[in-house]
Amino acid sequence: MALIMVTGTYPPTKQKDLNKIYVAENKPAYPASVKKAHNWVAQVTNGLYKVYAVYKCPDDKVLEALAGLTKRYNFYAQVDGYKFSIELLAEAEEAIRMMAE
After folding, report:
1. 57 and 2 Cβ atoms separated by less than 8 Å
2. Full pLDDT tens readout for the chain, 101 residues
3. How far apart are CA 70 and CA 60, in angstroms?
């Protein structure tokens, strides 16, 4: 199972705009193989709200998941000042084993 983390930031002054986008019915759907595992909000950092979301998908669906998540978060990026990054994660123990080989 692959883990994908999306980190988003936006100015506090854009919270109402982002709320409207978040509840919009026309936003792109998640791919069927993608399941949200976690969603967090952090304190304001450098004058921006910061949010994290972690998604799970089967290993053989990673490219489909990345494309679908990019499409969905680009929808949120129509709010001025909203930025996001997407990262593929690995369990620390697994990554250490792979680097030791």
Report:
1. yes
2. 899 999 999 999 999 999 999 899 999 999 999 999 999 988 777 899 999 999 999 989 999 999 999 999 999 999 999 999 999 997 777 767 767 77
3. 18
Among candidates 73, 72, 69, 76, which has minimal Cα distance to 14? 76
Residue in the structure block whose two tokens are 């709010």: 79
Residue 75 and residue 78: Cα distance in Å, rounded? Answer: 6
Amino acid at residue number 90 = A
pTM of the model: 0.86
Strand partners, 42: 50
Count CA atoms within 13 Å of residue 41 on its CB side. Answer: 6
Give the start-end residues of each E strand in the chain: 2-10, 35-45, 48-57, 83-89
